[in-house]
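Why does residue order matter? Because the sequence determines the fold. Keep that principle in mind as you read this record.
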Amino acid sequence: MLFDDTYKTIEQPAEGTFRDRGSKFIAYAFPVHSESDAKIKMASVKAGHSKARHHCWALRLTPDRSVFRINDDGEPSGTAGRPILNTILSVDLTNVLVIVVRYFGGTLLGVPGLIHAYKTAAAEALKSAKIISCTVNDVYSLNFEYLRMNDVMRIVKEENLNILRQEYDNTCLLEIEIRKTQLNSVLERFSKIDGLKQLYLYTI
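Structure:
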């Protein structure tokens, strides 16, 4: 199978709500890049809804869509986190966190009612989000002599590479993003520049 170097996520936070027999479900969708990023968002939502009965959530991470977490936060097992995650999976998003806050309305909804409520609230939030397609990029640092600047910048321009950080002195440093599908050809071009050192940093 060819490596798919694109993935879908959401551009900005979004919200959705659903009500059933007095219970109110408020869903928040966030773009996130790590579990620590997600924890900050969760803490913020919990602080804003400290009187809510439940704060249930699902998280899917990484461009290859392999990491996911769910939490029912006191609801019967399988009635909250899993339906929220299934909603994320149904639109094939990753690097996304959906939290659904429930204010209990006094009437028990039963297992089918809860599954429907959490799924619908999550779907409403994702429906109002702007879905974007991102490429999977590797970030590299390049170290080279100032005299090689023109050679390096020519490749950056021709290959349309995004510069994340730059330091210019006698020895220069560039941090650049290279799309996965371009990786081999771009690194080969850089390797032909005398004295240039390239180092892989991380993937985004």
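The first helix runs from residue 35 to 48.
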